[in-house]
Write a structure and sequence with these properties.
- The chain is α/β, with parallel strands linked by helices.
- It is built from 17 helices and eight strands.
- The longest helix has 20 residues, at about 320-339.
Length: about 350
């Protein structure tokens, strides 16, 4: 069996996906027409040509513009369902999605419209596609603390539908300590916590996210290698890193995939995972990210499987489901070794 066939069949768990970032240009136009929203582009191909980014901020500018087509509960359902169909195609058995409520509530969209649309699709994904899921609410770090606290309060009636809170958007200039009180409140309400850190920002952002925000998972985290003490700590603690290879190349975090450190991190013993981030904008879903690694970096099938084992370990499901997911991966790897 060649490596690409192995990747296609490998059971996968995705822990770093922004549902708004799965808005494909074709769906953007479909929803814009349905909701009578004017776009700055004439065709879906024009949108695709705009997907050349210099950095994170240049991506975010177009990302927020695209989100304007999402207005009704059915829009959020359709967006999420389209993503779940891609999960099924890529053999993703469990996914933990981010959503950005402030991107919508600041436009006058009610919080419940967003979360109910997404969760209705997630329930159908479980019953019709066999894909389990969790939902993570992210605070936009370029906005202020008061806005994040207001969003946290808006989420409380939907507490049973949201597993964790996170922190995303522009990392540079918006360090973790800006949201320390928000995360303390979130923990008091029983939310698990994650945060984007060490993508464009320094390794110190990872340290501060761990110590000040008490996060249990680091989103991105590739800059950890700039701090040897931190790397040693991450190896010992097994705090997971949800790495997004194609995203990192598209946003110029690394010059090219062959320069990416994801396999190096794995070999060091960190609990590193593979994820797609904003797949509609960065050139691919889960299989595409695994393919990109295999094409550019020497990696064994066992190491590719280890990314899935790590993701099962890092997920927010209970121990029983973690064991079941790991068993699926093991069965697949053993079957492939006999071919």
């Amino acid at each position: 069996m060649d490596q690409f066939s192995f990747i296609k069949g490998l059971p996968k768990i995705e822990l770093h996906i922004h549902i708004e970032g799965s808005l494909e240009p074709e769906m953007m136009f479909k929803l814009a027409k349905r909701n009578k929203v004017a776009l700055s582009y004439e065709t879906p191909d024009d949108v695709k040509r705009a997907y050349e980014f210099d950095d994170l901020q240049s991506f975010l500018d177009i990302y927020y513009q695209g989100a304007n087509v999402l207005i009704h509960e059915q829009d959020f359902y359709d967006l999420t369902w389209a993503y779940l169909l891609r999960c099924k195609q890529d053999n993703v058995i469990h996914t933990e999605l981010f959503f950005d409520p402030q991107t919508h509530t600041d436009r006058g969209i009610e919080f419940g419209v967003v979360v109910n649309g997404i969760n209705r699709a997630l329930k159908d994904g479980q019953s019709e596609l066999g894909i389990s899921s969790q939902l993570i609410m992210c605070f936009l770090r370029h906005l202020d603390e008061a806005s994040a606290i207001e969003t946290l309060n808006q989420s409380l009636p939907y507490r049973d539908q949201i597993i964790a809170v996170g922190l995303d958007s522009s990392e540079v200039g918006h360090p973790p300590e800006k949201f320390q009180r928000v995360f303390e409140l979130a923990l008091e309400h029983g939310y698990k916590t994650v945060a984007h850190a060490g993508e464009e920002g320094p390794a110190s952002n990872i340290v501060n996210a761990l110590t000040l925000l008490n996060i249990s998972r680091i989103d991105h985290g590739v800059r950890c290698v700039d701090d040897k003490v931190l790397v040693d700590q991450l190896i010992k603690s097994r705090v997971p890193l949800t790495v997004c290879p194609l995203s990192n190349i598209k946003l110029k975090v690394f010059e090219s995939m062959k320069h990416h450190n994801i396999v190096e991190l794995l070999e060091k013993g960190l609990c590193v995972t593979v994820n797609s981030d904003d797949p509609a904008y960065f050139g691919g879903y889960m299989n595409d990210n695994f393919f990109a690694i295999a094409e550019s970096i020497y990696v064994t099938n066992q190491q590719l499987a280890q990314f899935s084992y790590n993701a099962a370990e890092a997920s927010f499901v209970d121990d029983t489901q973690k064991t079941e997911m790991k068993a699926l991966i093991t069965t697949y790897v053993e079957k492939c070794s006999l071919l």
